[in-house]
Amino acid sequence: MAAAPHVPVPVGCIGAGRMAQGVLEGILREGKIAAQNVTVSAPTDRNLEKFKLRGCRTSHNNRSVVSRCRVVFLATKPHIIPSVLEEISPEVTAEHVIVSMAAGVTLQTLETNLPPGTKVIRMMPNLPCVVQEGAVVFSRGRCAGEGEANLFQSLVRTCGLCVEVPESYIDIHTGVSGSGVAYVYTFAEALADGAVKMGMPGALARQIAAQTLLGAAKMLLQSEEHPATLRSDVCTPGGTTIHGLHELEKGGLRATVMNAVEAATTRAMDMGRK
Ligand SMILES: NC(=O)c1ccc[n+]([C@@H]2O[C@H](COP(=O)([O-])OP(=O)(O)OC[C@H]3O[C@@H](n4cnc5c(N)ncnc54)[C@H](OP(=O)(O)O)[C@@H]3O)[C@@H](O)[C@H]2O)c1
Question: Pyrroline-5-carboxylate reductase dimerisation domain location, by residue (predicted)?
Answer without folding.
Answer: 167-270
